[in-house]
Amino acid sequence: xxKNLIVIVVFSLFLFAFKCMKYDGLIPLxxxxxxxNFEENPLDSNKIEIGRTLFYDPILSKDNTISCxxxxxxxxxxxxxxxxxxHGIYDxxxxxxxxxxxxxxxxxxxxxxxxxxxxxxxxxxxxxxxGEMGETTKNVVDKLNKSSIYPVLFESAFGTKEITxxxxxxxxxxxxxxxxxxxxxxxxxxxxxxxFSSKEQNGYKLFxxxxxxxxxxxLFSSYQFANNGLPIDSTLSDYGRKRITQKTEDNMLFKIPSxxxxxxxxxxxxxxxxxxLNQVLNHYTNGIKDSxxxxxxxxxxxxxxxxxxxxxxxxxxxxxxxxxVFNPKNKFPRSILLPEKD
Length: 342
Known about the structure:
This protein is mainly α. The protein has helices at 3-16, 45-55, 119-122, 124-128, 137-146, 150-158, 165-177, 185-190, 198-210, 242-245, 262-265, 277-287, 306-316, 322-325, and strands at residues 225-226, 254-255. Helix 2 packs antiparallel against helix 6 (150-158) and helix 2 (45-55) crosses helix 7. 37% of the residues are buried. Strands 1-2 form a two-stranded antiparallel sheet. It folds into two domains: 3-181 and 324-330, Cytochrome Bc1 Complex, Chain D, domain 2; 185-320, Cytochrome Bc1 Complex, Chain D, domain 2 (Orthogonal Bundle).
């Protein structure tokens, strides 16, 4: 049987097993209302699967070697752990650590410095960045249209074989919107299914006293920007949000990351300078560098005893969502992209 026909048949059978997905099924009961406007891009299982295929396909890069998953591995909560700074095309080294991707419907801006203000547009940044995917949107669209597979898949999802940049971006967004992490032990405790141990309970108390103002429950981030007192790396000279706004008051402000899935998403901070949670706690107790833009919440010294650090880390580990990290629906769609055969 013709290889392309096999791909199309397998894809069709795969989609037949799904009903069209409604966004309300993705909203956890204890979460606030999402920021993303689903009415402008209603979730559909066909589009989600195309987005998943694109996410894992290196066709998005100039030499077909780098995919979104190259820096956002599902096994690391869609972050990466093999190096502190992201690597891109031709093994170029970036200036920041790739952030984890989950619960994106609750973000109002993206990137460590908030350079992108809409999820539908976010993929344009890595695709067109010379050191990441090194491609252009036009070239990617041309490659997709010349593909023997994608026009058929887009027709099944969008009703047209003509692939545009807008449709490509909407499909990528659809898959990323399904990356919802809300099934950790913390979530199960909140729903009454489980209970914290004494160490976890004490750590939760410490968290609420010292961390919750920036890492707000239940998302465990306000997704705002803050200077958390990191000494600047003289090699990278990364001044955070100031690079975007050119405002002095934004100097050294970076987006506050979620604390969910920390066991999977190390190293930590925008430049991946810390490999262990204990190093992070040591920074907040002994390493904060004062500056005019330092968060007011960090002006008062934070003190943890050794036992309190152990308890706080025990609580933070209750935010790990193993079901999300190992969810087969988030992995590479092997049933769709089959190897080329003559």
